[in-house]
Amino acid sequence: MWGMQRSRYADCNGSDASEETEVVVNIGGVKQVLFGDVLNRFPDTRLAELTKCSVKSSEEISSLCDDYDSETGEFYFDRDPEAFKCIIELYYYGEIHIKRGICPICFMKEMEFWRIGADFLDDCCKCQLKEVQDELAEIAEKVKTILVDREGDPSAGRWQRFQMCLWRLMEKPESSLPAHIIAIVSFIFILVSSVVMCVGTIPDLQVEDSEGNLVEHPTLEVIETVCIGWFTIEYTLRLISAPNKVKFMLAFMNIVDFMAIMPFFVVLILTSFGAGVMELANVQQAVQALRIMRIARIFKLARHSSGLQTLTSALKSSFKELGLLLMYMGVGVFLFSALGYTMEQNHPETLFTSIPQSFWWAVITMTTVGYGDVYPKTTLGRCNAAISFLCGVIAIALPIHPIINNFVLFYNKQQVLETAAKHEIELMALRSEDAQLESSPHKHACCAGVWDHSAAPGRSDAFVPLLKDPKAGAGLQTPSMDRSFESTAEVSEYSMS
Q: Is the pLDDT of residue 23 over 70?
């Protein structure tokens, strides 16, 4: 009953004939004839098991496929025929490539169904799979963060709940209306403090002290004191509510916050020691340096601006391109400054007195600024200057496109991740409101998972969740988290396209 079709063919020399098993498979309506010697190259796979069906029972055959036609000897699989075209390449070429337009996560499920290990996937496709997995992990982390911010930890104590509430109030403007108001007030204080710092340097708005020195207007000092008071309270509350104090203090933006308020208190302490200490030259220089450090507070705007955060992250990812730019400029500056000094040193009115002094001219020329304070006076020197600024234009233009491309990619990725996280939260809310949808065996999600036929032979409604990484939901006690990632592959596929 379970006999297989057989055909006779000649070997490579054309002298002998041998008998080979033919396996007819129907993949989602697409029929294909496979040969046993090809499939047996990988005997542990599902397709290789089909060549042994002549000695298997009907129950064993049903566990291998979705349906079997005993009259035609055809095996039916309710799988994706496009993905199967990639799967069958393993038996002919020894490796698998994922075709464009196929979700890598879904393709891995196909490989699991056909009992093919991930080691047979080509390196280029492994990189693509790793990117999608990292993207899904980031979405899971965002969903986890949103859930913790909204629901908190019910097992936490009173003080821990207070800390979490205070942390959301100071760090999560989107968590509540009071937190959003506090973020706006903090943003206003940053702007006011920056404006006061700039306006305080205008001589017409300064006043003379008892010694005849110009100092800031008392009104501006009061405004500055109020702003510093707000920054101090804000930093203290955030430090108290931080889950990890050491990590909080070592974060870059928190270091900026500390540097923005520290000069005020240092100057206040030095002033409290009296005029004798303030008259020391070193102390006066230190005070001036600390006052200049107040410009660090402008970086506090990045805390409330997603655009500045995206720009910072894009520059971090472009260190290689920026390094190439600096290398090109460094080589050009050294080369053209040395040539300029050599060509100009014999001129009686030369402005190139040494090679280090010529570095300034080379930098200004290659960056096409051209201050004109240093310029060549000989014909060869002018030719060298022309070549230097042409090379400077080329050196600056080469890495610009990769840097801009990194910014666009990172910005689009952030937008997709935020949209995906919000979409997952909405899906979880719908599932919690409607228990019937949770218990329904049919879950419709584009590229969200695969229909596992091995779990229920003969049926096509066994759904395998997309994300099974236990780390993604670690620390969450929400029951719906196990089913909250069934549509993230749709977003990842969209971002890849």
A: yes
